[in-house]
Amino acid sequence: MRGYIVKRLLNMIPIMFVVSIVIFLFIHMIPGDPARLLAGHQATFEEVELLKEQMGLNNSYIVQYKDFMVGMLTGNWGNSLKTGLPVGDMVIPRMKPTLILAIFTIVWSVISGIAIGIISAINRGKWIDYVVMIGASSGISLPLFWLGLMLMQIFSVQLGWFPTTGIDGLKSYVLPSITLGAGITAMIARYTRSSMIEILKENYIRTSRAKGLSEFIVVNRHALRNSLIDVITIVGLQFGFLLAGSVLVETVFAIPGLGRLLIDSILFRDYTVVQTVLLIFTFQFLIINLIVDVLYGVFNPKIKYE
Amino acid sequence: MKVNTEIKKKQEDYKFESPMIELSRKFLKKKVATVSFFFILFLIILAIFQPTPYDISQTDYSNTLSKPSAEHWFGTDEYGRDIFSRIVYGTKLSLTVAIVGVTVGAVIGSILGLIAGYYRGIPEMIIMRTCDVLLAFPGLLLAIGIVAIIGPGLINVVIAIAIYGIPNFTRIIRSSTLAIKELLYVEASQSIGVSDLRLLFKHIFPGTVPALIVSYTMRLGTAIITAASLSFLGFGASPSNPDWGAMLSSGRNYIGIAPHMLFYPGLAIFLTVLGFNLLGDGLRDTLDPKLD
């Protein structure tokens, strides 16, 4: 197992390398001259040229890429073109809200998604199953920024239970987390249901019932364990959705997180911040995929890691 | 002689039914999918004929932010414009953006998928590895990235939707192509010397159509949400356009006083996407009995 994790971590290096090239090229394809942007409207041609020289924009792409990578690896992420502050100082405080939101959301939505899926599967064809399936189809089709706005309208504006925007204690994460998790819950419930339905048809389930185990044990110990193997893959895929969704949710609820920072930086053409945030997102995504693969092995003893 | 006529009679009894009719009958049995199909048809008719009771940019400063009434079914916005008319007009925008974007993505993706699946080797490796890189980014983030490079605007949203649809279609068509390529009739066509181009487009491509239709329908739903999200974030349609996402974005400022400005455009997005998703589910069940 340890060998496998090390191997996977080493495998991430070439992927990060390719991604960093893509992001580097992407940043340099964005129309507009960062030096002119930083120098301001009144700057003369000479001033812009001087700034270009200082920022290394006149060097060849290869040299620029090398500088960019050395900076990334040594923690020198450059200064924001908009505020002039070091990018690290801007990015690090933004990680906390995004992380809290992500952890909150994934925990409640995985638990409730699996629970709803099981309830639906063991009541297959009854009204509760139909309600769940309609809810799941709707949850997947809901534009989550609209859901967020509606929740905000009802619970913050009308009832005043939660703050409308910004971060003010853990209470502020409740509505954003519900918004972000609704689609994930729906997706997980759908997969858990179909996987459970398949597994409950298996012979070994009939055997467990025949030898007199209670239905609770049959479902929760014998069937669930196997269906978790399918479900965990879907959970892994949901993290990508979580990253993209957090951009929207942070915008709706004005949460000062990484997603919001990315959008603001793109709107202001703040390249140094954009490239750092994108690299962080990619890195996160790869690490999460690794964790999911390792968990996959924990739940499925048939898989042997070499 | 008598025997012959009997055989003839039997042959006449056997009516050949086109698979299209058979599949349509199977599809119409699925109530949810049928309702979604007619709902989508209704949206397309709305988009074409534009039965807007008011001009979409006609302002009325004496009647701003008013609640839904008999005169203005969905109320009015901050400039006194009729929200119902703007949503109807928005149907045209949303459907056009989604259909054009997804169609372009599907055409390019299908061609790449056919090439990758048929020729294998180096072209397949290049195409599929590029797809992996594109799919490594979560959908919306990729679309945001593309719009960040080429700039905001509705046309660029269409381009972003097309680009990020390509890898999905490539994957699906490639795997269908791989399966169809092994079939006997393909080998037969090759042996009588049919050209690659003809084989690919006349003999293999039609076999991939069922898979293509299903994912095309599903992608339309995703594309509508993506376009609305991009507009909402400020990367898509300008706020003066009656785009559903842009309407939600400007309605945010009036959440306390005019919630109807948020409710109806979002409902329009939700129902349209739900329609496409349920239609896609139904089509999948009809076209591919294995996937139940």
TrEMBL record, chain A:
Please list which residues make up the signal peptide: none
Which superkingdom is the protein from?
Answer: Bacteria
Name the GO cellular-component terms.
plasma membrane
CDD domains to which the protein is assigned, alphabetical: TM_PBP2
> Which Pfam families does the entry mention?
BPD_transp_1, BPD_transp_1_N
Q: Name one GO biological process term.
A: transmembrane transport
The protein's topology relative to the membrane is: Multi-pass membrane protein
| Keyword vocabulary terms for this entry | Cell membrane, Membrane, Transmembrane, Transmembrane helix, Transport
Where are its TM segments located? Answer: 12-30, 99-123, 130-152, 172-191, 231-256, 276-299
State its location(s). Cell membrane
Domain (ABC transmembrane type-1) ranges: 95-292
Q: Tell me, what does this protein do in biology?
A: Part of the ABC transporter complex GsiABCD involved in glutathione import. Probably responsible for the translocation of the substrate across the membrane.
What family does this belong to?
Belongs to the binding-protein-dependent transport system permease family.
What PANTHER family does this protein map onto? Answer: DIPEPTIDE TRANSPORT SYSTEM PERMEASE PROTEIN DPPB-RELATED (PTHR43163), GLUTATHIONE TRANSPORT SYSTEM PERMEASE PROTEIN GSIC (PTHR43163:SF5)
Q: What is this protein called?
A: Glutathione transport system permease protein GsiC
Its organism's taxonomic lineage begins at: Bacteria, Bacillati, Bacillota, Clostridia, Peptostreptococcales
UniProtKB/TrEMBL annotation, chain B:
Subcellular location field: Cell membrane
* Transmembrane regions listed in the UniProt entry: 32-49, 95-119, 140-163, 213-237, 257-280
Which superkingdom is the protein from? Answer: Bacteria
- Pfam families from the UniProt entry: BPD_transp_1, OppC_N
In the bilayer, the protein is annotated as: Multi-pass membrane protein
Cellular component (GO) terms are: plasma membrane
Q: Which InterPro entries match?
A: BP-dependent_transpt_permease, MetI-like, MetI-like_sf, OppC_N
Q: Which GO terms describe its molecular function?
A: dipeptide transmembrane transporter activity
PROSITE patterns on file = ABC_TM1
**Domain ABC transmembrane type-1, which positions?**
91-280
Alphabetically list the UniProt keywords: Cell membrane, Membrane, Transmembrane, Transmembrane helix, Transport
| CDD domains registered for this protein in UniProt | TM_PBP2
Function recorded in the entry: Part of the ABC transporter complex GsiABCD involved in glutathione import. Probably responsible for the translocation of the substrate across the membrane.
Family statement? Belongs to the binding-protein-dependent transport system permease family.
Query: What's the protein name?
Result: Glutathione transport system permease protein GsiD
